[in-house]
Write a structure and sequence with these properties.
Strand content: 25-35%
Distance between the termini: 10 Å
Strand order of the largest sheet: 2-3-4-5-6-1-7
Radius of gyration: 17 Å
CATH class: Alpha Beta
Number of strands: 7
Structural class: alpha+beta
Order of helices and strands: EHEHHEEHEHEHE
Helix content: 10-25%
Number of domains: 1
Shape: globular
Length: 209
């Protein structure tokens, strides 16, 4: 999947033609002791979320009843979502949370006045044997509603996901994939190009770049 937020700060053109249209970017946090994800308290994550909240917008974790707040409309501005009913959404949510809450952390931005979701980003945690059985965070599916761009919400969302991964969950690195025109944006926010993403799609599956 592609993490491709349509940020207000579009990267300038002129990147080398040898650059792939999809880059793998990494924020290196340095080697550190592994964190037992099952022992991370909700308060640690909540403190990070609260630091981004203000009178206009709330940053919080996805809830079971968020289907009606427009989460799928936001994701639809990023890529193909298909025909996801409320029943299907709730079934997927119940599989992910709380059973796999140590792995999945989906942050949404809510317009407080409208009680509407206008941004979303996912953090997926990978447990490893290397780096002293360390943890690696993967940022995916970052999107901000087109009518809210220009408010630096994308910057705040990326910072929130990065801080949850590194500060609360002890990730030694955080990775993401993005479109070529967003590379400079992520570089300005501490990420570095690290390799190139490859993807294989099942026959008949549509892909949106």
């Amino acid at each position: 999947m592609q993490s491709d937020c349509q940020f207000e700060q579009q990267a300038s053109s002129g990147l080398s033609s040898a650059t792939s249209s999809l880059e793998n970017l990494t924020l290196l946090e340095g080697a550190r002791c592994s964190t037992d994800l099952s022992k991370v308290t909700d308060n640690q994550i909540q403190d990070i979320l609260s630091s981004q909240c203000d009178s206009e917008f709330t940053f919080r974790l996805l809830r079971r009843d968020d289907y009606g707040r427009g989460i799928m409309n936001v994701l639809g501005q990023l890529t193909i979502v298909g025909d996801v009913t409320q029943e299907a959404f709730e079934k997927q949510f119940e599989w992910m949370f709380p059973l796999h809450k140590d792995t999945y952390h989906i942050v949404v931005i809510v317009d407080n006045k409208l009680d509407k979701i206008i941004g979303s980003g996912s953090l997926i945690m990978e447990r490893k044997f290397l780096r002293s059985t360390g943890n690696c965070g993967h940022i995916e599916d970052v999107a901000v509603d087109s009518t809210y761009r220009g408010k630096k919400l994308g910057i705040r969302l990326i910072a929130t996901l990065r801080d949850i991964a590194s500060r609360a969950l002890g990730s030694y690195k955080v990775t993401l994939d993005c479109a070529e025109h967003n590379v400079k944006f992520y570089e300005a926010n501490g990420f570095k190009i690290k390799g190139t993403q490859m993807a294989w799609y099942r026959e008949g599956e549509k892909q949106k770049l």
